[in-house]
Amino acid sequence: MSADNKTKVVADDMVISLDYTLSVDGEVLDSSEDEGPIVFLQGHGNIIPGLEKELVGLAVGENKEVTVTPKDGYGEQDSEEIKDIPLSEFPEEIPLKDGIELKVKDDEGVEMYGKIVSVGEETVEMDFNHPLAGKTLQFSVKLIELRDATQEELAHGHVHSPGHAH
Question: What's the rounded Cα separation, in Å, for the pair 41 and 137?
Answer without folding.
Answer: 21
